[in-house]
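User: Structure please.
Assistant: Input sequence and predicted structure:
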Amino acid sequence: MLALALPATDLPALRFRIQRLAEDRPGTYRMIDASGHVLYAGKAKAIRTRLLSYFRAQYPDDKQARILHAASDIVFDYTPSEFSAALAELKLIRKHRPPFNVAMNRSKRYGFLVLTDESAPRLVATGTPDRLRGRTYGPLPSPARTVVAARALSDLLGLRDCRADMPMHYAEQGDLFAEPRRAACPRYDFKTCLGPCAGLVAEAAYRDRVEAAAGFCEGRALQPVDRVVHEMTSRAEAADFEGALRWREKFEALEWLLAATTRARASLDLLSFIYRDPGSQGDDRIYLIRSGEVRACYPDPVSPLEHEMFAGVVAEECARSLPPAHRVDAEQLHERLLVLSWFRTHPEAWRRTTGLTAWQ
């Protein structure tokens, strides 16, 4: 009886091929199983060094070794630079959805708020906003504080937090209910939910609260804060210091959320420029980045004609109106996170950026 599973391929032969064929250049690689499916997609600044590290990993403790044992082949492609490798890796993951690339490993450090597109919308704090449809706000720097802020805002505005498949009925549908109506959870009795599950609120009134939540997250309205300040000062004047402390905690949660969403919008606005990316083999590229999304990529213009042609591309892109920042699909979201992470971890890259207007 074998103590360890046998690898799916001849590992010494595969290692020999990598040693002879792979170069230490930026690129992407794919681990392929016997049926041709992609098990894992990755990137590396030095492809040869990264791939050979898989053969030094210990099975079954190391994830690298487990991937290698399940693979029958390794396919790699070179890219002009590490930045282009990161973009290419993202495309590979979106295309193949490899089982070893868990949740794309990109949004765990951040929190997001999603105001869902449902008959009775919810305000959901999540680390994987691509699993929900709705208006997305973030990235926010602390997932834990995002949960606290979402709870405070939902309670103040009376938004539901029940399951997505909970049947919703508004007050206009009164013929569906037998008296007396009763909410499905105690939040209605605690006055922290308007009770759309039991037809205890009109649809227009509930939608007004949803828009108030959207207005707060987008920095257009401060309606919930007014109530918190009033309650906090009233409790303090009545010497109810414990109650005042609870309202102060809500105030601090909303204050943090307002600052965090404002910073997120500002960060997105800053990520609009032309980025010149030097290639490892002289294949320099130029990227048109707008609101954190790569809109165009060309070889670095050298001649006046190439400069003028790229200026036309920039002018055409700037003439297009941008969709609301909170309306972003999963593909755009992960690209925004990648670009944001790149310029945070590579501050020297900022020196190779140029404003969009400079090219027009």
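The CA atoms of residues 310 and 343 lie 23 Å apart.
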